[in-house]
Amino acid sequence: MILSVKNLCIAIDGKPAVRDLTFSVAAGEVLGVVGESGCGKSMVNMALMGLLPDGVSASAERMEACGIDLLRARSRDWRALRGGNMAMIFQNPMSALNPCLTIERQLTESVLHTHGGMSRASARAEALRLLDRVGIAHASARLKSYPHELSGGMAQRIMIAMAVASAPQLLIADEPTTALDVTVQAQILQLLEEIRQDTGMAMMMVSHDIGVIEQCAHRVQVMYSGQIVESGNVGEVIASPRHPYTRGLVAAQPGRNGQRPKSRLTTIDGSVIPITEEVEGCRFRSRCSRTDHHCVQPPTMQRTEANSHRESRCHW
Amino acid sequence: MQTSITAVHRLMPGGWGNIGFFALVTMVLLGFLAPLLLDLSPYRIGAELLVPPSWNPLSAPILGTDDLGRDMFARLVYGARCSLGIGFVVVAVSLVVGVGLGLLAGVYGGWLDAVIMRLVDLLMCLPSILLAIVIVAVLGSGLVNAVVAVTIIGIPRFVRVVRSVAIQEMQKTYVMAAFASGSSRFRVLWSEVLPNCVPPVIVQAALGFSDAILEIAALGFLGLGAKPPVAEWGAMLADARPFIESHPLLVVMPGVCILITVLSFNLVGDALRDRLDPKLARL
């Protein structure tokens, strides 16, 4: 396993926010994480990178990445891990690049960080190769550009180039396509998939769009208000969702299940409860259409079929 | 040709700043080239005292002589050299120290931030000229000690500006991205935050120049800075004080020089701020 997490809890100012997350990612695998805004997806990423802001703390029974115990990692280990085996790309590529520096400076810096003793000239050559790899035309001209001269798609390609500069074993992609328009989104997902096949890196793809996850992930876990509510193989989960929340997410996609175009979209009533709020029983209860007396008990993850890997946090 | 024109254009602050810019260029040329081209002797004591200005560039004392018969034009030119040189040293040193402390405070935060900022508050809660007098009183008077004093009181402005920029930048995604790619905190300070501090620091440097010149002149006037016979505008003002009624030009001329220089730096500084400060940027 490249990444293995058991009972990860994250607290904001002492109040529990993310509750008992258990998941793992195998080499070369793409794990999709889906959930609406504020369900704790990004916080999990930050915890995995050791970048939680002040006042937010993580605890877990086990948290291992690339053979390193993250719970015991010191700042030196973290730095080696971050620039080496683990990399991350962000939601808004335009703000993830330093506006004052050229692409060349930023990209060669990433390259030099990975290959310590490399000369400037060979770092530049490596930067050119990376730009070529992520499909940027006129790479040498682009090196001279500043971030504001790039389109969003190009900026995200450059972020990907910086991320894969160290040939990471695990790439965490935090909503990498959310800020991009749909055609560019497809190209970026395609690019990530190509790189994954070339290098065999594992990916954790976070998105609020179950359609994106369906396109690129092997397995999916659905998060709701700080918990995993359903997990399993992407195709199976989307074809026959078990948890009412997943069902709602799948149904809320436009144009699915032979819906007529421009018909009224299906929605999930209500809004997500604040992640730090304590709730008795099931956290989805207030929005669920099928509540009964079982729902007052806090639900646990259960296998949905005897010999499958699918699990759901619902008694139905 | 085209590129050199754009290069000059990029250097120009624009608007009123251009006037200040040209005044400063003239001042620098006068101060640093005139002594090489002309035979100027600011310390030679002439036979004729208090000669009125001839206002004629071809006849000897263009701006007259002072109470010891020294050539006023030569003294003013050397004074420009002195003021601009001192201004440059003061700004350069307080910029480096101030930017360094500001970055440390803004990027590392915590107790380091608290210590640095309380020290800065301490410096700022005293009127700057009073503080300079205290420092000079402790170190002893003289031009070098005056420069040290003015440098110290020039530091807080840089610390404050840089710290506030650094704190803002630390919240940005690209700083997070830099951390996520394994950069150390110092690396983030150096290659992510520092480049973003450059525009406001340039503005502060231009304004700091004018403050430094003014403070050095004030200390010179009070007899705590440059000592006679050094040709320094503030000291010249002080020397000419007894003659303010009989020969007012002796006071007016160094005063006007100080005024023009300080005003020019302020014009340039304000114009640069309009151009470089993203918060005031035109849409």
TrEMBL record, chain A:
It holds the Pfam family oligo_HPY. One of its GO terms (molecular function) is ATP binding. It is found in: Cell inner membrane. Gene3D superfamilies: P-loop containing nucleotide triphosphate hydrolases (3.40.50.300). This is ABC transporter ATP-binding protein. It comes from Microbulbifer harenosus. It is a peripheral membrane protein. The keyword Disulfide bond does not apply. Keywords: ATP-binding, Cell inner membrane, Cell membrane, Membrane, Nucleotide-binding, Transport.
